[in-house]
Amino acid sequence: MSVTNISQPSAPTRPGRRPGAVMSAAVAFYWWNRTLFRWAGVVIRPVLGIFVIASAGELLVNLGRQYQTALLSSVVGRLAGQGAAGGAEPAGWLNAVLPDESRQAAFLLVGVVVLVALFHFIFRAVDALANSRMMAALQATVHDQLMRLGTQWYDRAGNDTGANVQIVNLAPVAQQALALIVRSPLVEGISVATAFMLIFQGLAQLPHTPLWVEILAAILLLGLPVLGWQLSQPVRHANESVVSAQKSFLTELLNSLSQPLAIQALGGERQRSTRIRERLQTLALARFQTAVRGDAANQFKSALPFLLQALFLVYAVVATVQAGGLSGESLGGSLQAIILIQGLVPVAVQSILSIIDIFTGINQQWPMIASVGEILDAVPPGDAPNATDWPRDAKNIRFQNVSFSYRPALPLLLDGINCEFTPGVITAIAGASGSGKSTTFQLLTRLRQPTGGSITIGGTELDSIRLDEVRRHIGIVHQSPPFLTDTVRANFQLAKLDATDVEIEAACHKVGVWDVLVTKTPAAPLDQQMTHDGGGANDFSGGERRRLAIARGLLSRPSLLLFDEPTAGIDSHTLELVADAIKRASAGTTSIVIDHNLDFILGLADRVCVLSEGHFVQTGNPHQLAAQPGAFRELLEAVRRLAGDATMTTTSYPMPVLGARTASQDGPFSSVSMGQLPDNPSNTRPPSGGPPVRQRPDPDIANEATS
User: Fold this and answer.
1) Considering only Cβ atoms within 10 Å of each terminal Cβ, which end of the chain, N or C, has fewer?
2) Do the Cβ atoms of 412 and 450 come closer than 8 Å?
3) 623-640 tens-digit pLDDT
């Protein structure tokens, strides 16, 4: 799926100020764009309780580690201050959260360390459970959404099978980023706030700490991590190059592996190898550039905590020495401040960097996040308010002045068509390629909506019927029927989830395909394995798959059966089996057939509607229409001409027999003796002249001659 047309939403800016002048683009993106939070809500909602527990656990672990650092500083400070007058009492609000005695603080420290380690293990397990469930839920949601989206989605360029498979497969990347934008600012924000409080409490215990030092400390703690984020921005562009290179490689990989045997037959292995290697070289270069730029940014971020830690420690030591050295009453307080700074400056910096990394990660993973979010936001076809069930026993389908165009700017493909389809009659829709035949099927199954007019089922508007009812009462056999790489049973349950083996067997018997299953797997016919493309060693032939699709269409006992190009890709022998299956399946239902094989339609259909220039220009019995000038006859002649069978006999003649005949006995052929007949009767010329063509005998005439 292409995401090049998706831009990151821009944050509002004040007049006269450049975007990002007040806050970074990523922070503005976070605070001012509700789209990310909506997507994050979809990700978190299925496991909200577990997510809250995991987030609370992470916060408790962070606060516990800060508290154990404060306890350690208290124990060391009290031990160092023993013997000095008054000892070393913790200053300020620390008195309320630390024990009064060093021994109590030491025991509490051990207990807190053990509890923090235990809680960390437990909450990590809870977090892993939450993440695994969120990943599974998001992938299932994206899959289900793709199964519901209609033609408006799939008509768009870039929404092809390979792209959609890649999005579902890589949806966990988006899940991690979307979950973190909710959790990390809250958890890390509170952690930063408490770490700052403890750090400034430690600075307050140093002798004569001026206000400007505290202000400078705040600026450094907040400013340097932001600088590190700015230095990491080139990584985003490098990651975009990697994503683009990966898409190109996957496209080439699909080109190679979709039909490997056909490519071998063409001798195309070298061309495929060259293209794959070119794509891999581009991908390798993009990965190298990303690794180098990412390592450069990470070096600064990894060194930053140590630099700030060293800066604060040097100041603490200098301040202590200038105040009289590490002796007397100042010893305990100074050591306590140094330990607090030593332990909590890295914690505060890492928490800030974690928040910034969230926004950096959003930039890096934006193509995938946007792809997933676009699917989540897409609106699938729905039902009208107060939608009803399928009308009881309704099987009459009526098109009333129906028009359709793919886009408003395009001409009408269907322009006010009117037709009624009745049960017990097999109706064929004939027309040239692109005339709108398949579009009528899409309108009937509500994959598309008419531009004008209405379609009614037993007098009820099709649009007013619930979509699930429409899909249940209309069975369709596609030109390339969808099959799963699974058992025959699972493939039938595509049409009816709760279909029993008895129902499946009955449907197969009705179209005469059960014997095929029994022949392949006598012990368990429905456990026979199929493949989605029919390429398995013991898979079914094209004709067998078509007949299985017809049987599958009967499971829900549909009121309307649609057959889209049922003869495509099958041989002449299988045509008879498919025709027989359609006739059996159509008993008592309304059946509509689309097929370019007009000879097949002649032998199958009771009625044909000829579609041309947006209208049904002819309707009637196919044999009658074939015998008279008009659109159907022209189509039939064109099809036969392409097949090397251009002449269509519209006048019945008796078959010639041996022996002399008079004109009165034998009609037009009486003046032609057998010796005068062409040696090859299949190479006769039409009366109007033209190239030799092969005449197809009318079966009814042949029967007369035989009798």
Assistant:
1) C
2) no
3) 999 999 999 999 988 888
Quote the pLDDT of residue 6: 37
The confidence band for 536, taking pLDDT boundaries of 50, 70 and 90, is low
Query: Residue 681's Cα: distance from chain center in Å?
Result: 58
Q: Comparing C-alpha atoms, which of 486, 478, 463 is closest to residue 532?
A: 486
Q: What is the pTM of this model?
A: 0.71
Residue 86: half-sphere exposure toward Cβ, Cα within 13 Å: 9
- pLDDT of 214 strictly over 90: no
Tokens of 115: 């509890």
690, two tokens: 């033209």
* Measured distance CA(608)–CA(594) in Å, rounded: 10
d(CA 154, CA 167): 14
Which contacts (CB < 8 Å, 24+ apart) does range 167-171 have?
A: 167/1, 167/142, 167/368, 167/371, 167/372, 167/375, 168/139, 168/142, 168/143, 169/139, 170/368, 171/135, 171/138, 171/139, 171/142, 171/368, 171/372
Two structure tokens written together for 109? 């420290």
Instruction: Write the secondary structure of 526-563 as one string of H (helix), E (strand) and C (coil).
Output: HHCECCCCCCCCCCCCHHHHHHHHHHHHCCCCCCEEEE
Q: Of the ranges 99-108, 277-286, 319-328, which one carries the lowest mean pLDDT score?
A: 319-328
Task: CATH number for 26-377: choose from 3.40.640.10, 3.40.109.10, 1.20.1560.10, 1.10.3430.10.
Answer: 1.20.1560.10
The span from the CA of 319 to the CA of 316, in Å, is 5
Percentage of residues of the chain with pLDDT beyond 70: 77
